[in-house]
Amino acid sequence: MTSRNWVKLFLSTLLVGGLTTGVVGFIVRWKEFESIFVPFDFLEVLSVLLWLIGVGLIFSILSQMGFFAYLTIHRFGLGIFKSRSLWNAVQVFLIFFVLFDLVYFRYTAFAKEGESIMPYIGIALFLLAVAIFVAFIKVKQTNKDAFIPAVFFMVVVTTIEWVPVLRVNEQSWVFLMIFPLLVCNAYQLLILHKLNEKSQIHRQRISSKKPSK
Asked: Does 210 map to a domain?
């Protein structure tokens, strides 16, 4: 990827993260912010919106760090296991391992006596469903080999990025963080091949303009 397209990806992902958090923040934390809407206080609403966008920028940077870390890990995985099918099997194992941990450890750590496990399972299933949906789009855009890596990234890497608020288990923060992370991660995953194609075309144009020796 050329530096121009990398900067484009960085800035556009920041914008996606900031705007998503700004919208989601008012929805998931409505009870906290309701008083500034009734009666409507423009300055208060603006200050809260800017604060949410700032938080979203942090989520976006975390998402981008996870994305580029995964790209490196993916290359290492292909190199270490030599076979794409073997590396895919490892990724599938890790996907189910992380989903199990997401349910089991959160339930044992935070569930109150008599509380149902279903809400914890529901969050894991929601994450998996979004991952599969994004992976199908990625396959349509590229090829079938992208399916498992896409699900792995959307489940495993998103969960790792999500850990700071999962450990606190404050419900409003759990939902405030997961939606921007999912949107940012999906955006980066689905736009990557397009930026790579543009970068390749740009390099070819530069090469064609160089005088032959």
From this structure: no
Instruction: Report if residue 173 sits inside a domain.
Output: yes
Give the model confidence (pLDDT) of 103-126 as tens digits.
Answer: 999 999 888 888 899 999 999 999
Using CA atoms, how far residue 65 sits from 12, 17, 84, 137, 200, in Å, is: 15, 13, 24, 23, 23
Per-residue tokens: 157? 């890497």
The answer to whether the beta carbons of residues 48 and 109 sit under 8 Å apart is: no
Count of domains for the chain: 1
Rounded Cα distance, 18 and 54, in Å: 7
Average pLDDT of the chain to the nearest whole number: 89
Please indicate, yes or no, if residue 97 is contained in any of the structural domains.
yes
Q: Which of 62, 134, 130, 128 is nearest to 92 (CA)?
A: 128
Structural domain that includes position 44: 3-197
Question: CB–CB of 25/180 below 8 Å?
Answer: no
Query: Does the residue 206 lie in any domain?
Result: no
For the residues 75-86, what does the mean pLDDT come to?
A: 88
Q: Which residues contact 183 (CB under 8 A, 6 or more apart)?
A: 16, 17, 20
Report the C-alpha gap between 134 and 130 in whole angstroms: 6
Digit-coded pLDDT (tens) for 39-67: 777 788 888 899 999 999 999 999 999 99
DSSP string for residues in 104-159: HHHHHHHPPTT--SHHHHHHHHHHHHHHHHHHHHHHHHS-GGGHHHHHHIIIIIHH
Least confidently predicted of 30-34, 190-194, 201-205: 201-205
